[in-house]
């Protein structure tokens, strides 16, 4: 994933690369994802969240739907 | 087969050495640091890869390409923290380095389209607000199809 100054910049990038626009998240949401994934990464018990945990984490910061579901089979054809 | 405690020992050595130096160690350096045989370290790499905590360098099992959030090679996502420069795998991981190290950080990022400099900052385990956005081009179900690209 990439950082952009604005939604307009995202649209230009998508046009240039001929890719569909996908969800955008703000920096507060991005920080919360970073904390959920990595805050204990240097500890013995650290692990990557399981699929169901990922769905709960995403939902807790307002990210819902098949795009944020690691078990979704909706994306097999078009990526 | 390595027991789980040994795999954890290698994991902690990897992350400890990255935190201390900013660089991801290779299997020889980890063998020296842990007192394990290098073959055992490489087996631990494989086990950590299965857990999605590590990505070996393609074509070279002695090296680590990614120990998320850290990158084994310089990237477009540098993070300046604790007096060192680290490299992240993406903008999410750039914040992830500050979160993992529990430290303030400056992230000299760039706009994904124009290349314009966009600086992010973490202070007191909080991001300094900016109106920027992150775009996820790949859905969650496909992140690990090609994690280096994602």
Explained architecture:
- The complex is a heterodimer of chains A (79) and B (150).
- Chain A is mainly alpha-helical and 79 residues long.
- Chain A has a domain at 25-72.
- Chain A is built from 3 helices and 2 strands, in the order E-H-E-H-H.
- Chain A has helices at 7-17, 27-38, 51-60, and strands spanning 2-4, 24-26.
- Chain A starts with a strand and ends in a 19-residue tail after the last helix.
- The mean pLDDT of chain A is 91.
- Chain B is α+β, with helices and mostly antiparallel strands and 150 residues long.
- Chain B has 2 domains: 4-67, Winged helix-like DNA-binding domain superfamily/Winged helix DNA-binding domain (Arc Repressor Mutant, subunit A), CATH 1.10.10; 78-127, no CATH class.
- Chain B contains 4 helices and 9 strands.
- Chain B has a 3-stranded antiparallel beta sheet. Chain B has a 3-stranded antiparallel beta sheet with strand order 6-7-8, with helices on one face. In chain B, strands 4-5 form a two-stranded antiparallel sheet.
- In chain B, helix 1 (4-21) packs across helix 3 and helix 2 (27-34) crosses helix 3.
- Chain B is globular and about 50 Å long.
- The mean pLDDT of chain B is 94.
- The chains are: A mainly alpha (79), B alpha+beta (150).
- The interface between A and B is large, with 49 and 51 residues.
């Amino acid at each position: 994933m990439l950082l952009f100054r604005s939604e307009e910049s995202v649209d230009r990038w998508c046009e240039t690369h001929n890719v569909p626009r996908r969800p955008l998240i703000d920096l507060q949401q991005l920080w919360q994802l970073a904390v959920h994934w990595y805050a204990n990464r240097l500890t013995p018990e650290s692990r990557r969240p399981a699929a169901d945990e990922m769905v709960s984490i995403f939902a807790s910061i307002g990210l819902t739907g098949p795009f944020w579901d690691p078990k979704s089979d909706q994306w097999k054809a078009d990526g | 087969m390595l027991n789980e405690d040994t795999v954890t020992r290698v994991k902690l050595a990897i992350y400890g050495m990255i935190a201390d130096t900013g660089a991801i160690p290779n299997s020889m350096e980890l063998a020296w640091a842990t007192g394990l045989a290098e073959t055992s370290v490489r087996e631990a790499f494989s086990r950590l890869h299965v857990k999605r905590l590590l990505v070996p360098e393609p074509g070279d099992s002695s090296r680590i390409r990614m120990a998320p959030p850290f990158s084994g090679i310089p990237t477009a996502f540098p993070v300046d923290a604790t007096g060192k420069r680290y490299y992240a795998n993406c903008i999410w991981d750039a914040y992830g380095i500050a979160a993992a190290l529990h430290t303030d950080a400056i992230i000299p990022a760039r706009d994904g389209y124009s290349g314009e400099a966009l600086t992010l900052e973490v202070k007191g385990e909080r991001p300094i607000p900016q109106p920027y956005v992150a775009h996820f081009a790949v859905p969650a179900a496909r992140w690990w199809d090609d994690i280096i690209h994602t």
